[in-house]
Amino acid sequence: MSETSAFIIIVAAIFTNNILLSNFLGMCSFLVCSRQIGTALGLGAAVIFVMTCTTVLNYGIYYGVLVKDAPLCSADLTFLAFIIFIAVIAAFVQFVEMFVERFSPKLYYALGIFLPLITVNCAILGAALFMIIRKYSFWQSLGYGFGAGVGWALAILLIAGLRKKMGYSRVPKPFQGVSIAMIITGVMAMTFMGFAGMVSIQ
Amino acid sequence: MKLLERLLDRTRGAFAEGKRLHRTKPVFDAAENFFFAPISRAKSAPFVHDPLDIKRLMSMVIIAILPALACAVYFFGLHVLAMVVVSYAAGGIVEVLFAVVRKEEINEGFLVTGMLFPLILPPALPLWMVAVGVMFGVLVGKELFGGTGRNLFNPALVGRVFLALAYPAAMAGNWISPVAEPPGRILQYVSSGAVDAIAGATPLAAAKQGQLAGLQEMFLGNVAGSAGETSALAILLGGILLIMTRVASWRIVVGVLGSFLLMETVLHYTLPGPIPPPMWQLLAGGILFGAFFMATDPVTSPATTGGKWAYAIIIGLATALIRHLTGYVEGVMFAILLGNICAPLLDEVAVAVRLRRLAHES
Hints:
The complex is a heterodimer. Chain A is mostly helical.
């Protein structure tokens, strides 16, 4: 178990180990939904919320049920981790969607397609798996889930701003659309390399 | 001059529509515009009458860089000039290709990039690396976004960061120790093959080993470092010219240097281990050069006043943090590129805040 404090993990997950810019997880919705700042903000907020909650849920299930000699089940079920995590994420997103639709239709329509989209955002599953690989404690997992979500939201907000400014650009035909967005992502990743080593979490 | 004019007039016909050399017309236009005012008239809006057009703006920046370039040649030798030539030639190829394909004029903006780029490199860097770096910077940092005025990132910095990540060993070595007594190294040519004999450590790298360079030497430029950043005096001369002519925004310069000094003061008293005092940090490394010449690029910095302050503060803080908390010795290039990335979003926030305030007042 690593000794890093939860606060350091939050900072590291945002800047030095940004889940999008250093691990390149969650690229699909990042590239598709970053054309407008408003949508980027909505999706970013949703990702922060879902990532924080599912990381904690998955932590509880993994150490409560799946590992060998867990409190609730003594058999070693860790080989089920992938499928359980995916199921938990999908179920949680469904639950949140129904909840939001029932209690705040306005927010539901504002988020629109983004909530279901989060189900297939690999950054969410990635955060849960990193939590296992790096052997985080409960508070560290909470910090990592929240930090990784904030880092992802920050990245999509920044690229949404850049793409809006690009309304004035004349990109050569073969590079229009997703390809120029990937080039911008590359430059952003090069820049975030500057933070490497500031605080390190593996 | 008369002779040149007659030559240009006579050859103009060969570049006319339908003629054999028409495809290379941008080259002709560039050559003509460099010496004379263009003969074409503005046909579309905006019809602005202003003595400060993009050409004057870029020429002013080049004049402002000249003192720093002179210092670089004096302290580090003629290899610096070779780097400038290679940078212009290699970047120029990319620029001309795009201008020909787009059927546009070659823009003066490249003259600035091609000059700034070698000045932020180690002075004994192999010339082929200079060529690779400037081509990457111009291609990815500028031309893919539509050329001068439409780029999102500072092309020189994109090239510099690319080199720093791709060839870390070469970019961390190749420092030449300067010679202060006249005539300096002005008659020498120190390439990367010969640098070992006279290699010097930069002040920031030496400080990590506990050796502090003298303030006066750093102010005059008698220290190892990137070609253009060596002399604080020369940078200040050019920088003040830029601010007086309003080419550079004073808000950005003040914001970057102010927040940098503040953060250095905080780190000086909180971090364990000896950290040189803030004023020393200001003169060491590339913070002055970056603040005056790179961060103030009007294209890649925010347009709103509030955005400019926030942008400058991000750069200043990030520079200090990267210097002391990461493995990198100097963080200015990463910090300014980070500022470029944040710039559009900061503008959006500044405009939104302003709109809300206006709605509140009415």
